[in-house]
Amino acid sequence: FEFPFYNGHFTTFRLSSNGWVSFTSSSTNHTNTGLPSNGIDVPENLIAPFWDDLIFLSDAKAYYHFDGARLIVEYQNVLRAGQLNAPNTFEVILHPDGHIVFQYLSMTANNLGNATVGIQNAARNDGLPLHRATGRRSRRLPSARGRRAVRDRARAVSTADRGAPRIRHGFRQQRGIPGHRHARGPVADVA
């Protein structure tokens, strides 16, 4: 399907092993930053459910699936660099109307506050940070253990004014990719 994102429409995506999706960037950068950012190697047209230096060992996988109504991109049992005993499972769901859902099943890594969660546009000058990399543990980053929804500090951006999505958050039941378990968990709902 054609996915509307900021002022563009996209039919293809690129999946990074470092916890982000872009419609145009081929960057392999694992060094995350706050959003928006026009730094060198910072991906444009970015959707970042959990951008960090991630490692794929043994049973770690990344999947994508289009079920006819939405695109699901799932990171399963991925590890953060230096934390090889703490797997993380999360996903991003893209709907044809531009609706984006970040969902976290199990986030067991230490210091989740180092990751970047959010989106940004093609020019890399407008974005919605749900969490900025700070080097500190954040209470805003979802934890399946805490069952809390994301609390963003960014204001919702009017789609009429800037062509950008608006943030909503809460809990949803999600089945995930067929054959893989996804239970009720916290989500960041970007509409």
Tag the structure with descriptive keywords.
1 helix, globular, 5-stranded antiparallel beta sheet, about 190 residues, mainly beta
- Compressed to H and E, one letter per element, the order equals EEEEEEEEEEEEHEE
Strand-pairing-aware structural class: mainly beta
Distance between the termini: 17 Å
Quaternary:
single chain
Low-confidence stretches: 134-176, 178-185
What is the mean predicted local confidence, pLDDT?
Answer: 77
Could you explain the architecture of this structure?
With 191 residues, this protein is mainly beta. It contains one helix and 14 strands, in the order ββββββββββββαββ. Strands 6, 7, 8, 9, 10, 13 and 14 form a seven-stranded antiparallel β-sheet that branches. A five-stranded antiparallel β-sheet has the order 3-4-5-11-12, with no helix packed on it. A hairpin with a 5-residue loop joins β9 (83-94) and β10. The longest helix is centred in the last third of the chain and has 4 residues, at 159-162. The protein is globular, with a radius of gyration of 15 Å. The two termini are 17 Å apart. Residues 134-176 and 178-185 have low confidence and may be disordered.
